[in-house]
Amino acid sequence: MSEHKEVLDDEPRSILMGIISQLSRGTDLSRVTLPVFILEPRSFLEKVTDFMSHPDLIQRAAFVDDPMERFIQIVRYYLSGWHIQPKGVKKPYNPVLGEHFRCKWTFPDATEAYYIAEQVSHHPPISAYAIYSPDNYLLATGELRPKSKFLGNSAASMLHGSTKVRFLNIPGEEYFITYPNIYARGILFGTMMMELGDCVTVKCPQNDFICNVEFKTKGFFSGSYNVIVGTIKKASTGEVLFEIGGTWSDKMEIRQVQNGRKGPWKLLFDVTTSQVFPKTVVPEEQQEPYESRRLWLKVTNALQSRNLNLATDEKTVIEDNQRRMTKERDENDIDWVPRFFTYKNGEYLPKLNHISTDPATANAQIKQFIFSQHEANVSYQELHPTRK
């Protein structure tokens, strides 16, 4: 766990303490301007891709005949991405309205998965995303509504929202996934570090399976870091089918339960031997103005060169521009319309939500949807209504 710890120098610590002294317990941190030295140099829209660090675990799930084994593969994939954490307590950039991030993964068999995320709301902050892999019949959609709170010596990022996974070759089968909360410990005293906590679920109503996992936080005097405890049950009866244990930062295991008898533990996922799949991202100079890496490039460069004053100035430019455009829309009674997503029945769904079951046709649809430059130019004019 040491790789996720951090000890601040006196000056950054005093700056942070000065801000914290003005806060009360339970304060919503989304409206608090935090110093740039606690920033992780990438947008939250890109950080979401950490959940897809091992996409090979879900790549072939659509071709697994046994529903129970398919469900276990979904659970394994879901638990595999949490070990990707920055050193110490780092917070990604808050995406601005209309910002988007896109990338793709290429698998060993040359099939691909595409990712698109967009900041669809600023107050409250909502990030919507979709993952497509038509050759593997995979479509995952979801949204995250993070809400940060000050808790004394800790700050909590409550990850509201969920992901829905579908396989296009298995009609009607859907998986619904929720997220743990993230805690930044040691803000006032002690070593600063990140922890995951609370309970999450993975469920497939069609097959009557539900997985409940508790991300345990370490007690003050006892316990261990990063422990998970979970069960896979038959949802309708509560019958336990499997137990899950281990640590999300190291090894996780699973064992079958039959008629109350517990089988041997078997490896579910091993962080130490796993391969993080690299994502392919278009170079910044070829990206659109509101694509995450290009939008935040000057801030990122300043942070990486440890020029905190310049990073603060460049971050302020982006935030001031956001406020200016919000004011212009309000004055002209213009509603914001996301480019890639639409709000329907209480959730944000990608505008390309129904794709062909023919992989070649679907790939063409997805590339047109995510990478269309014509739409990009229109979108940029909408984002900057006063610019020529």
UniProtKB/TrEMBL annotation:
InterPro entries: OSBP_sf, Oxysterol-bd, Oxysterol-bd_CS
Highest taxon of the lineage: Eukaryota
Pfam families: Oxysterol_BP
Family (UniProt): Belongs to the OSBP family.
Protein name according to UniProt: Oxysterol-binding protein OBPa
Source species of the chain: Basidiobolus ranarum
